[in-house]
Amino acid sequence: MPGHLVTTDKDAFTMNNPTNSTLAHSEFPIKHNDLLLNYLHWTIRAATKFLAILMTLVILWGVFDVIYIVYSQLAHPPYFQIRDIMTTFGAFLAVLIAYEIFTNITLYIRTDVFPVQLVVATALMAVARKVIALDLEKLEPLYLLGLGAIVMSLGISYWLIVRSEGALTSKNSRLEHSA
C-alpha cells in the first residue's frame, strides 16, 4: 500500500501521487499475494491486538494503584508530604505512559504504519517521569549526565521528526493544490 505517511495529529493518510518521492512505506500490507505472508501478517495483527488488551489491563491496574496511593496518603497523618506527592506524580505519569503505549499499539492496528513520532514522545515522557522522581542525593553525577544526554537526544529527535513531517505535509499540500 504505497503512500502511508504518519501525520502529527496521529492520523495516517494516503497520497495517490506517484510522482511524490517523499512517501513512506507501509509496515505490514494487509493484502499480499503470498499466502505465508498473509498468515504471518494476520498473526502479528492478532498478537498486537492481544497486546492492546493486556495494556488496557495494565492501565486499569495503574488507575487502581493511583487511587490506592491517594487514599493511603489521605487516610493517615501526616497528609501528603513532598515525597508522597512525588510518589503520586510518579504513579500518575506511569498510567499516562501506559496510555501512550496503548495509543501506539492501537494506532498501529488501525493504520499499519509505525508511529515514530508518538514512540519518541512516549519515550520522552517516560524519561521525564524518571527525572521528576529522581532522588538527587542518591545518584552519581555520571548517571545524571547520561540521563541528560538521553533527554537531549530524545528532544532533538522529536524536534527533527516534527520538523520533517511538517515539511512533508506542507510539500504534499502544495502538490495537491497544484494538481
Task: Explain this structure.
- The chain is mainly α and 179 residues long.
- It has one domain (23-178).
- Helices cover 70% and strands 3% of the residues.
- The protein has 4 helices and 2 strands.
- The protein has helices at residues 35-75, 82-111, 116-132, 141-178; strands at 4-6, 12-14.
- The protein has a two-stranded antiparallel sheet.
- The chain is extended, with a radius of gyration of 21 Å.
- It starts with a strand and ends with a helix.
- 6% of the residues are buried.
- Residues 1-25 have low confidence and may be disordered.
What is the number of independent domains?
1
Question: How are the strands of the biggest sheet laid out side by side?
Answer: 1-2
Q: Which range does the strand content fall in?
A: under 5%
Distance between the termini: 22 Å
Q: How many strands appear in the DSSP assignment?
A: 2
Secondary-structure class: mainly alpha
